[in-house]
Amino acid sequence: xxxxxxxxxxxxxxxxxxxxxxxxxxxxxxxxxxxxxxxxxxxxxxxxxxxxxxxxxxxxxxxxxxxxxxxxxxxxxxxxxxxxxxxxxxxxxxxxxxxxxxxxxxxxxxxxxxxxxxxxxxxxxxxxxxxxxxxxxxxxxxxxxxxxxxxxxxxxxxxxxxxxxxxxxxxxxxxxxxxxxxxxxxxxxxxxxxxxxxxxxxxxxxxxxxxxxxxxxxxxxxxxxxxxxxxxxxxxxxxxxxxxxxxxxxxxxxxxxxxxxxxxxxxxxxxxxxxxxxxxxxxxxxxx
Length: 288
Ligand SMILES: NC(=O)c1ccc[n+]([C@@H]2O[C@H](COP(=O)([O-])OP(=O)(O)OC[C@H]3O[C@@H](n4cnc5c(N)ncnc54)[C@H](OP(=O)(O)O)[C@@H]3O)[C@@H](O)[C@H]2O)c1
Prior knowledge:
This protein is α/β, with parallel strands linked by helices. Helices cover 47% and strands 14% of the residues.
């Protein structure tokens, strides 16, 4: 379907029931977009937004992803202008003790699921100029978190996948009007219910475990940092701008959002500090 200039933008947005995704759904709806927003439990999705369509999607259930996406795409008339891979959750605890099912779940939810959605979405995104994918990864993709090793690794996987696609799409062999833009959006700490929704190491509160205290201290530092961080609207504004302003999306390949210390200091530390010093800085910042 060829869009007309008055057609609202059609957006596929994962994780629209809470936090950054919910704020993004609200911002996009207010900007006149039509949004196909997902959650595992559709009763958690907003029902007061103009142009919002509820979609049940569990990224941890790979067999269903293609069907769910195709159904939403058909409902959207065969065209999405942008896909925002935002949904995510974490497992908090020692990387050496993450149960195999939780490890797999981190990679399905944060990397493999979004990659499958990208593969499914790209043909329709190519059907008009300016097709866009925003992958909400994390600053943890560059500055990995202690007790979030699997989370950080899965985010890094999606971030690097995004970089690969950015190079492929801008190769001279790809005609300009069929290029899909990819933006790696890396929030620093954002004040959402993310930590409350996480799964935790089973020994977190075990008084006999020698490192449980350190894990709890790191979690408390993360809770404090998130409580003082910008709200999800800060990220939603950036996503909304990328989606509605093609010139902005064309300029961006990587964007960090958060408070000044993390969003500016973090990437500088990543770029300029020797690895050992960078890890020491992150560890101290995480209360260890
Ligand atoms: N908050 C931060 O400080 C921060 C920092 C960096 C990056 N991020 C990233 O930003 C994104 C949004 O996080 P948030 O802070 O807004 O978290 P949130 O408030 O906990 O919201 C997470 C969203 O993801 C959905 N979700 C979780 N697991 C899912 C799964 N297996 N399949 C489908 N949907 C799933 C949830 O929907 P249901 O539970 O209703 O299904 C919910 O809508 C995540 O990718 C997160 O990693 C957050």
